[in-house]
Amino acid sequence: MRAREASKQRAVAYHEAGHAVASWHFGRRFKHVTIEAEGDSLGHVSYTVPRWNLEFEVSDRAHLGLQSEIIVRFAGQIAEAKFREQRPRYGFHSDNQSAVDLAFHVCGSNETVNAYLKYCWCASTDIVNWRWREIIALADALLKTPTLKYSDALEVISPGSAALRASLEMKRK
After folding, report:
1. Tens-place pLDDT, residues 16-32
2. E-strand stretches of 19-164
3. CA gap 117, 132 in Å, rounded
4. Which of 27, 53, 58, 166 has the fewest CB atoms below 10 angstroms from its CB?
5. Hey, what domains does the chain have and what are their CATH numbers?
6. pTM across the whole model
């Protein structure tokens, strides 16, 4: 792999690791995380269906779900920017558009949406900075194994968690 392609692949790994670690931070389960290109995407995190419904639910729980989703959307590009030490040039536009669309479900005016998105951006930056070691570990793991199931990603993010889950399962039986 040429140096430029390797650098691009590392940036994608950090981007997707940012999304995955932020999801884990919020207790949101995903199916897998990958840095394998598919269609126009260079990588992605595949999620299970959210527990809230935009059409029918206007509860605090739904709003918190939307907020965490917006923060997760921002975490990919923030992690990539931290890795590159510069803002990414591509791969974040759909994340940003989704964040804006979700924010309009929570807020009423453009002014409130802009302030809310700024808050979510800052919260996402805090999570990326706080969880940077986990993001590095997951990005490195993705460069070795381009697709990781949730359980494998979880073991990278929080070593020993598989043994803990197995132990808890044994106690339940």
Report:
1. 999 999 999 999 889 99
2. 30-34, 44-47, 147-149
3. 22
4. 27
5. 3-172 (1.20.58.760)
6. 0.86
